[in-house]
Each structure stands twice: as structure tokens, then as C-alpha cells.
Write a structure and sequence with these properties.
It holds the Pfam family Peptidase_C39_2. This is Peptidase_C39 like family protein. The protein is globular, with a radius of gyration of 23 Å. The chain is built from 15 helices and 10 strands. It folds into 3 domains: 54 residues; 85 residues, no CATH class; 167 residues, Cathepsin B, Chain A (Alpha-Beta Complex), CATH 3.90.70.
Length: 327
């Protein structure tokens, strides 16, 4: 049996479990409402009680909730960072099983986006759902994924982003996240390399054409993508040179990293297992201050909103490149 049939069988089993759980919940709520209605007869409180049991908290459309398309996913994710329950945090990624992925998504089903996802599970690649289980910032993108285009050249960069020192681009931005990267994946899942290089090129040269989807297209057409593995390290050197960017590998040394940043360069780091990834990932370091290094993580806004000390990063860094404009 091929992998597609195995995945479809698993998804059908998971959907059956989901329907059984929903029936149990509805049955329980029906019994509870019937009991409350009988108990409150004549008290004048029945309508109020039923309303309090069945109502949901409403969400300001500007918060990023709901399934409307995200015109500015970074801003939407920033708005999501604070809720009535407190700040949304994103922990280090975990290698969830399929059952654990479903349990995590079902636990959030009161959110309209997750309900949409659960109702059309067969529309999503499993790896995308697993990423969502690790990063709730992706919820709007995943809910809208079935309607998004997988064609390159659709992405665009705003005037505000062009003015930033090093704009944060997220892999799962609707402008490019659904674009195919490799035979069986997409930028949202495996496009951290092109997205990281895109941030650096735009920050250094203000090239509006250097969107993550165009960089991903360039990588695939020029041999910088290795099927089954991901982005080759040579994209950060030979590939960067095609965009008139000088790049060299440097040692993972705190003083050398700070010096490179002081000289106007940006750092792209290949990361190993730890706070950012289970296997491999690219991040951008664009500055530093007394608290630590300033990071643009193409997969996560939460991790991009904090400084990282050298001691936190040094054992996770596999390789570093400093990229600068050609002189």
C-alpha cells in the first residue's frame, strides 16, 4: 500500500474519532440543557441560563481570528500574541504523533479556523497540520490553504517592508506559502532557506522581485534544492551571488558575528535541533543589543520577537554565512 493510501486511511480513522467525540459532546450538552430548562421553569431565568451555556466569546475581526484571507500575516500574528488568556507563546517544536496532532487541533475547535480545518481534513498535507500543532500563529494560513494558489510570481512586497532594515517574511504568508517547493512540499513547510535569503536580499538591496516564492523558484531551477533533504547550503553563497550579494562562511564566534553585523552585514544561520527545529532550519540574525542577538525566524513570529543570547544559540548553530552588498 503506498503512502498516499496509508495517509488517507489514517485521516479517515481520525475523522471517525472526531465525529464520535462531537456526538458525545452534543449529547452531553443536550442532557445538560434539558436539565437546566426543567430546573429553571417558572424562575424567569431559563433564557439567560441557556444563552450563557451556548454562547461563544466574540472575536474582533482585526485580531486575525476567523478565516478571512490575511493581507498582512505578520501583523495578524502580532495581534494574536495577546488574548484574553494572556500572551500566546510558541514552544520548541515537538515530534507529535498523528493522534497527538489531532488531539491538539480538536482542543482548539471552538476557534472558527480550527473548526474549518477539522471539517476538511483531507484538503491538507499532514506535514502542514503537524506544523500547525507546533505553531498556532499559522491558523489563518492553514484554514485558507485549500483556496490559495501554488504558483510562483504571485508574491509582492509592500512599501513598508521595503523600508525596514531587514523585513520579517514568514514562510506561511498567504502571498507565497502555498507555492510548491520540491515535488511534495511547499514554502510554508520547507521553504525556510529561500525565505531567509529573501529577507536578506530585500534588506540589503531593496529588490522587490526577490520574494520568497521567486527565490524558491530560482533555487529549484538552479540546483539549490535537494529532493528529500531541502535547501542546499550553496544557495547562501553561489545563489546569493546571483543577486549581487557577497557571502562567506564564518566561524560560530560571538565577536566575529557582532563585528560582521557592525560592518553592515546580515547573518544567515543553519540551525540544528533545539529551539527552532527538529531537524534543520535557516534563520536570519540582523542585529544585536545588550540583551542578545535579534533574529528573524521565517517560521515563527514569537521567536522573532525576542533577543537570543550567544549561549542560547551556539550549540544549535551548524553553520553561519555573513552576507553583504557587493562593493
Amino acid at each position: 500500500m503506498d503512502n498516499q493510501n496509508i495517509n488517507e486511511k489514517r485521516m479517515r480513522q481520525l475523522r471517525r474519532k472526531q465525529r464520535r467525540r462531537r456526538r458525545m459532546i452534543l449529547t452531553f450538552l443536550g442532557i445538560l440543557l434539558a436539565y437546566l430548562a426543567g430546573y429553571m421553569v417558572g424562575s424567569g431565568k431559563m433564557d439567560q441560563t441557556i444563552a450563557s451555556v451556548s454562547s461563544r466569546d466574540t472575536v474582533d475581526p482585526g485580531s486575525g481570528a476567523g478565516i478571512g484571507k490575511a493581507e498582512n500575516p505578520v501583523q495578524i500574528a502580532r495581534n494574536m500574541m495577546n488574548t484574553q488568556e494572556g500572551e500566546i507563546t510558541v514552544a520548541a517544536p515537538e515530534d507529535y504523533s498523528e493522534e497527538e496532532v489531532m488531539q491538539k487541533l480538536e482542543s482548539l475547535s471552538e476557534d472558527e479556523r480550527y473548526e474549518t480545518i477539522l471539517n476538511q481534513m483531507n484538503e491538507y498535507p499532514y506535514e502542514l497540520l503537524k506544523d500547525l500543532a507546533n505553531n498556532p500563529e499559522m491558523a489563518s494560513f492553514v484554514a485558507n490553504y485549500p483556496s490559495l494558489s501554488g504558483d510562483s510570481g504571485k508574491g509582492s512586497i509592500s512599501k513598508e517592508e521595503l523600508k525596514e532594515k531587514c523585513p520579517l517574511f514568514l514562510q506561511w504568508d498567504e502571498r507565497w506559502g502555498a507555492f510548491t517547493y520540491g515535488n511534495e512540499s511547499m514554502i510554508a513547510v520547507s521553504g525556510c532557506g529561500p525565505t531567509a535569503l529573501s529577507m536578506v536580499i530585500v534588506g540589503l538591496t531593496h529588490n522587490q522581485e526577490a520574494t520568497p516564492d521567486n527565490i524558491a523558484d530560482f533555487a529549484m531551477n538552479n540546483g539549490y534544492y535537494l529532493q528529500g533533504t531541502g535547501t542546499k547550503w550553496s544557495l547562501m553563497t553561489e545563489g546569493a551571488a546571483e543577486y549581487k550579494i557577497n557571502s562567506e562562511m564564518i566561524p560560530s564566534d560571538k565577536k566575529r558575528m557582532e563585528q560582521s553585523l557592525d560592518e553592515g552585514g546580515f547573518l544567515i544561520c543553519s540551525m540544528g535541533q533545539g529551539d527552532f527545529t527538529l531537524a534543520g532550519h535557516f534563520i536570519v540574525i540582523y542585529g544585536y543589543n545588550k540583551k542578545g542577538f535579534q533574529v528573524n525566524d521565517p517560521f515563527c513570529l514569537y521567536r522573532s520577537n525576542q533577543e537570543w543570547t550567544y549561549s542560547q544559540l551556539e550549540n544549535q548553530i551548524k553553520s553561519i554565512w555573513v552576507l553583504k552588498n557587493e562593493v
